[in-house]
Design a protein that fits this description.
- With 137 residues, this protein is an alpha+beta fold.
- Helix content is 18%, strand content 20%.
- The protein is built from 4 helices and 6 strands, in the order ββαααββαββ.
- A 4-stranded mixed β-sheet has the order 3-4-5-6. Strands 1-2 form a two-stranded antiparallel ribbon.
- The longest helix is centred in the C-terminal third of the chain and has 13 residues.
- Bound molecules: iron/sulfur cluster (SF4) (2 copies).
- One iron/sulfur cluster binds next to loops.
- The site of one iron/sulfur cluster has 10 residues, from loops.
- InterPro entries: UPF0153_domain.
- It comes from Metarhizobium album.
- This is Zinc/iron-chelating domain-containing protein.
Length: 137
């Protein structure tokens, strides 16, 4: 999902393709952490004009929430965050499995979990087969 994405904020996807690799995508029968068969790393989506609506409408949290600081940019942080109702889902690039435990992300995730908990929400981190619920700080 490379620019020319129209962004909600002033941010753009650049050369990031994490959302084409990290999540499971049922309509393509794509498992998590395997690139979509249409993804061309460094270039973008091979079927960009005809990509399905799920791709067309998707923005990760960094692209849609200007309150998320710049250092959470997926291409830089190796983390992709998205909301699923009350769940804040954090997908960690398995090539950088410990990045979420390092700063500024560890503190950031704790703060995120604390804020989410005030409205019944929670934060879940997925690293390969490992699933971790972040306790509210
Ligand atoms: S993970 Fe976010 S920044 Fe990266 S391509 Fe997807 S929407 Fe764009
Ligand atoms: S179809 Fe294109 S935009 Fe959608 S996941 Fe595959 S490569 Fe990414």
């Amino acid at each position: 999902m490379i620019a020319p994405h129209k962004t909600i904020t002033a941010r753009s996807c650049g050369t990031c393709t994490l959302c084409c690799r990290l999540p499971e995508i049922e309509e393509f029968d794509k498992p998590a952490n395997i690139p979509c068969r249409h993804c061309m790393p460094g270039t973008g989506c091979a079927i960009y004009a005809d990509r399905p609506s799920g791709c067309r409408d998707f923005f990760c949290l960094w692209m849609s929430d200007p309150d998320l600081p710049d250092e959470w940019e997926p291409a830089q942080s190796n983390l992709m965050i998205c909301r699923h109702g009350q769940q804040m889902t954090v997908l960690v690039d398995p090539e950088h499995p410990d990045v979420w435990k390092a700063e500024p992300y560890a503190s950031g995730l704790n703060a995120m979990a604390k804020k989410a908990a005030t409205s019944g929400g929670y934060v879940i981190v997925f690293v390969g087969d490992e699933i971790v619920k972040i306790p509210p700080a």
